[in-house]
Amino acid sequence: MPAPRFARDRALAFAPASVGNIGVGFDLLGHALAGPGDWVEVRRTAEPGVVLAPIEGADRPLPQRAEDNTAGAALLSFHTALGCPGGFEARIRKGIPFGSGMGGSAASAVAAVVAANALLEEPLPREALYRHALDGEAVASGSRHGDNVAPILLGGVALAVGERPPLRLPVPPELHCAHVHPHCAIETRKARAALAGAYRLDAFVRQSGHLALLLLGLTRGDRELIAAGLDDGLIEPRRAGLIPGFAEVKRAALDHGALGASISGAGPSVFAWCWGRADAERVARAMQAAFRGAGLDSDRLVCPVDAPGARVHVPGTDLEPPRPAHCESESLPCAS
């Protein structure tokens, strides 16, 4: 395989936050969020390998060695597979809080490979970047699951099954997400440890049925099927106790018109799907109030479920370069 040819020496990419699992689609489903995200600039170097510049915007120290960092590991995978001459230097700007259940580790990995791909004279199709981003995500989570990587890479709702190329699913335009991030953190590995143990066969069958209803509802644009499918009886009960006030937050969402609500990724963020933006705004405010009742401040975000995925920054466009990782207001910074 001939070495790739480069069209430029540096590129900057943005990768949005995401909702992993979507409740019933554990490690299989996720959707992008039109709001906060991570930025990675990749620059070609004469020296082989991958090096990371000091990481900006993180609320705690993150691994600086490429092999131990999600963006660095993804770039190493991309670099090795393509036989790229020279090496890469990556500059990472975090815009997704650590341990928020918003796909921060996956976003860095995706932004890195999207930026590196943009350097090529003949860039690879998005689906071909998937396995390299998975290599990066595995560094943080300990497993190769694509429920965050796939929607961040493709946008909208994505289905990720093993190593197969991920699929972007149809989403009715009326469908909106109300997403609330309480000001606390849960490490993904701890949240996965809460799932250890046996599961009843009837609970597994019921969950499979709800997943089928959700997928069919998305395909048909049927709000009743979507609502029927958004009912996680397998994973949510084991993780709910990790999130202060979760039961009250979910009840607030349902009482104010949400089709369904559950844990965003590994938590502690909570998401709700709603039919129309007005309902989603009302639901998000109710969820925030419930978190305040549990003693937690929070950030809220409302956006279409069919949100855009990662993209390369082009100067002069609406996609602006890095903003601070946190803000004082109730809404997270937006790059849409």
Write a structural description.
- The protein has 336 residues and is α+β, with helices and mostly antiparallel strands.
- It has two domains: 10-169, Ribosomal Protein S5, domain 2; 175-304, GHMP kinase, C-terminal domain (Alpha-Beta Plaits).
- It is built from ten helices and eleven strands.
- Strands 1, 2, 3, 4, 5, 6 and 11 form a seven-stranded mixed sheet that branches.
- Strand 3, helix 1 and strand 4 (87-93) form a beta-alpha-beta unit.
- The two termini are 38 Å apart.
Structural descriptors:
336 residues; Ribosomal Protein S5, domain 2; 11 strands; disordered C terminus; four-stranded antiparallel sheet; alpha+beta; seven-stranded mixed sheet; Alpha-Beta Plaits
Strand-helix topology:
Elements: E1 10-20, E2 29-45, E3 49-52, H1 70-82, E4 87-93, H2 104-118, H3 126-141, H4 149-154, E5 157-159, E6 167-169, E7 175-182, H5 188-193, H6 201-220, H7 223-229, H8 236-239, H9 246-255, E8 260-263, E9 270-275, H10 277-293, E10 298-304, E11 311-312
Parallel strand pairs: 3-4
Antiparallel strand pairs: 1-2, 1-11, 2-4, 2-5, 5-6, 7-9, 7-10, 8-9
Helix pairs in contact: 1-2, 1-3, 2-3, 6-7, 9-10
